[in-house]
Amino acid sequence: MAVFYGEELGSALMLGTAGYPSPAVLARAFRVSGAGVATVSLRREAGGGQDFWALVQDLGVRLLPNTAGCHGVREAVTTAQMAREVFGTDWIKLEVIGHADTLQPDVFGLVEAARILSAEGFRVFPYCTEDLIVCERLLEAGCEVLMPWGAPIGSGMGLNNPFGLRALRAAFPGVPLVVDAGIGLPSHAAAAMEMGYDAVLVNSAVARAGDPAAMAGAMAGAVRAGRAAWLADPMERTDMAVASTPVLGRAFL
Amino acid sequence: MRVTVIGAGVAGLCVARELRARGAEVAVMGAAPGPEACSWWAGGMLAPDCEGESAEEPVVRLGREAADWWQAQGVRVHRRGTLVVSPQRDAAALARFARRSGGHREVDVAEIEPALPQRRGLFFAGEAHLAPREALAVLAAGAEFTRRAEGRVIDCRGLSARDALPDLRGVRGETVLIRCPDVAISRPVRLLHPRMPLYLVPRGEGVYLLGATSVESDGRGPPTVRAVLELLSAAFALHPALAEAEVLELGADARPAFADNLPRVRRVGEVLHVNGLYRHGFLLAPAMARLVADHLLLGIEPEVME
Question: In the CATH scheme, what is the code of domain B1-79+128-167+258-306?
Answer without folding.
Answer: 3.50.50.60
